[in-house]
Amino acid sequence: MDLVPSPNASAREPVLAYVGLGANWGNAGAALQTALSRLAQAPGVLACRTSGLYRSAPVDATGPDYLNAVAELRTTLSAMDVLALLQALENQAGRERPYRNAPRTLDLDLLLYGDAHIHAPTLEVPHPRLWGRAFVLLPLAELAPERVSAQALAAVQDQAIARC
Fold it and tell me: Is 115 annotated in the active site?
């Protein structure tokens, strides 16, 4: 899949979007670094900041531990164009979906897109499981502490996670 956004993508005002990154199959660290580099260079992405890396056990699955991070994108892409970009990067990393919650060479999720609430067949923003996962909330709180309440962090404090 090509990484070129739709023709009107650059006509939008910049928005802050937050992307969750994870990998637990193959060279997870290299996969995250490659994805972050490609995100930062993608058309329509004006700036990219990244949280630290975290290690966490898979949720509702078995397999190796995940490496996780969150990226903050300042972008002119629409939410659907960001989703298409993320899916293209997953495909380039060899992402397969043999079964639900299978180990992943790369998993990219659009967590937040400005203050938008999107309920489409292929995209839900805020991400529907955002508030129940420490591996997303802790790195998100690094980048945007105002977006993560103390109550949200307290609700996931029993989940095993370590900063790398």
Answer: no
Active-site residue identified among 12, 38, 60, 107: 107
Active-site residue, from 95, 100, 115, 129:
95
In sequence order, which ranges of the chain are alpha helices (DSSP H)? 28-41, 79-92, 134-143, 150-155
Q: Is 65 a catalytic residue?
A: no
Identify the weakest region by mean pLDDT among 6-15, 29-38, 40-49: 6-15
Residue 3 belongs to a domain: no
Q: With a cut of 60, say whether residue 98 has pLDDT above it.
A: no
Q: Are 153 and 138 in contact (CB under 8 A)?
A: yes
Other C-beta atoms lying within 10 Å of the C-beta of residue 73: 24
Q: Angle 56-31-33 (CA atoms, 0-180°, nearest 5)?
A: 95
Does residue 4 belong to any structural domain of this protein? no
User: How many angstroms separate the CA atoms of 11 and 114, rounded?
Assistant: 16
Whether 1 maps to a domain, the answer reads no
Choosing from 74, 100, 104, 133, the catalytic residue is 104
103 located within any domain? yes
CA–CA separation, 54 and 96 (whole Å)? 23
